[in-house]
Amino acid sequence: QVQLVESGGGLVQAGGSLRLSCTASGSSFLLMGWYRQTPGKQRELVAAVPRGGAPNYGDSVQGRANITKDPQSNTVDLQLNELKPEDTAIYYCKATTWYSRDFWGQGTQVTVSS
């Protein structure tokens, strides 16, 4: 079965950086990425990378984020720089299988202190 293992997150000071990693297994994947959600708001794209394609970034992290994918291990790493308090959220890894089903990780809390 499909499994997603997330790592990273935690408490970071404003202006700092964080790195989140997600490894997926159990299928081949058309797309992998990171999304985030705060209470009362919809889950939003942070960054995602399709297989064989260029990454997409959410508007709120443009210029501050970099996502890379290792095709050998189905691992995506997200580097987010110049962190702001508004980056505080639960970050979720998503992987879309070859049959177009989405799977989500359990989420990891990121808190940016001002």
Would you list the SSEs in sequence order as H and E? EEEEEEEEEEE
Global mean pLDDT: 96
Q: What oligomeric state do the depicted chains represent?
A: single chain
Strand content: over 45%
* Structure class: mainly beta
Number of helices: 0
Report, as a whole number of angstroms, the end-to-end distance.
Answer: 41 Å
Helix fraction, binned, reads under 10%
The radius of gyration is 13 Å
The main sheet comes to:
7 strands, mixed
Number of strands: 11
- Uncertain parts: none
What is the overall silhouette? globular
Protein architecture, described:
By secondary structure, the chain is mostly beta strands. 0% of the residues lie in helices and 58% in strands. The protein has strands spanning 3-8, 10-13, 18-25, 29-37, 44-50, 56-57, 65-70, 75-80, 89-97, 102-104, 108-113. It is globular. The model has no long low-confidence stretch (mean pLDDT 96).
